[in-house]
Every structure is written in C-alpha cells, then in structure tokens.
Amino acid sequence: MSGANGDNWSADFAAPRGTALAPGTYAGALRYPFQPLQAPGFSLTGNGRGCKESTSTFTVENAVFGPSGYVQEFDATFEQHCENGATAARGEVHITNPPAPAELGIGVKVATSGTASTLDGKAGLTGTLECTEPATVTLSGTATQVKHNVIIRGSYSTQVACTPGAAVPWQVAVDPVGTTPFQKGQAEIVTRATALDPNYNTNVSVSDTTVVTLTKA
Which residues contact 31 (CB under 8 A, 6 or more apart)? Predict the structure, then answer.
C-alpha cells in the first residue's frame, strides 16, 4: 500500500505451509516468511520499519481467491507484537478486486493425414490451434515411425500467433534423425502447445498424441 504522502506499508498473511488461507483466527503467527512449517505467518512493515522477531494474531473474515492466487476479496484484522513487547500494532485490511479473469485455454489438433517427402525425407504435418486469449503459442514435439524394424524419429518446434474466435492453421516439417527418411505409413505424433497466460504470467501447456498416416509427396 502506497500513500499519497509517500508512506509505504506491506502486510503478509500466511496459513501454515501446505494449507490454504481461509476465514478463521490464526493465533501464534510468527514473522513471515521465517515461521516454522506448522505455524501461520504474519508481517507488517512500512516506512523502513519492521520487526526482527514478532508474534501476531490475525483473523481472516473473508477470502475469495481466483486462479494463480488472484485476490478477489480479502478482509482481515491483525495485531502484531515486535520483539515480544507488550505494545502492539493493530489494523485491518479490506481488498475488493474485479472478478478473476479466466485462465488461458489452448486447444491443439493434429491432422490425421500427412506427407513423407521423397526429396528430403521429412514428414509434413498440419493442424489447427485455438485459444481463449491472444497468445504466442510454442508447438513442439516428436514424430516416431517404425519401418522394417528401424525406428525413425524426429523433433519439431514452431511458434504460432493465436487469436481467439478462430482455428489457426499451422504446419511443420519434421527432419528425421540419422539417414533413414520418413516413409509412407503410420507415425505417432506427440505435440505440446505452451503459451504464457497474459493475465497471470504463468505458462499454460496442453499435450496431444495422434496417429498420422503419411503418404508420399
């Protein structure tokens, strides 16, 4: 929290490790983030001041969270004692934000027909990509084919500018590892689509495995 007069204050509320912060009273909270695993944590600092050690109690009256820890609503009161002193800092926090935006959704499809080039031995793959928010999606994966007891494998990676509301086409040419080219017949295609969620700054990934029939081209 930054005040118009230049004041700057920060408060951290934490449930015991491994549990979600929920309505209720948290007694015996120690200085965050140095509290033991089983203890709640709290820390109030501001204007260059803070506790070296602290014992606190805080009560969460309301807590509504969205994806990736998005704070939609939060209401709490607190009491903090520095260095086990009798005097205390007391206060309350009230936060109301707009409803949490939806997380980025990605859908990837691989066409069940592809090509095996007689010129350079590469496998040609196509497909479509869908997303719920504008995003740059990285497509990567492998193509695997077995012919005459020989494993033919190659990897691929490309980036696609995805816009919501339409299926965006994509295509790749998979270069085989070694000297054996991809050939007509079935191949297993494993694809992963990854993009950065623009609202939450987290990576979102989906995977797809499709059997593709390659024909000579």
Answer: 41, 42, 43, 51, 52, 53, 54
Q: Based on the fold, state whether residues 14 and 112 are members of the same structural domain.
A: no
Q: pLDDT, tens digit, for every residue of 126-174?
A: 999 999 999 999 999 999 999 999 999 999 999 999 999 899 999 999 9
pLDDT digits 0-9 by tens, 104-127: 999 999 999 999 999 999 999 999
CA distances from 144 to 44, 83, 114, 205 (A): 56, 64, 13, 21
Calpha distance 39→17 (Å, rounded): 8
**Whether residue 92 is found in the same domain as residue 13:** yes
Give the pTM: 0.73
Is there a cis peptide before residue 33, judged by omega within 30 degrees of 0? yes
Asked whether 168 and 159 are in contact (CB, 8 A), the reply is no
How many Å from the N-terminal Cα to the C-terminal Cα in the chain? 63
Which pairs from 143-146 meet CB under 8 Å and 24+ separation? 143/174, 143/182, 143/187, 143/188, 143/189, 143/212, 144/187, 144/188, 144/190, 145/182, 145/183, 145/185, 145/186, 145/187, 145/188, 145/214
Q: Which residue's entry shows tokens 């495995």? A: 209
- Tokens coding 109: 């499809």
**How many structural domains is the chain composed of?**
2
How many angstroms from the chain centroid is the CA of residue 128?
Answer: 22
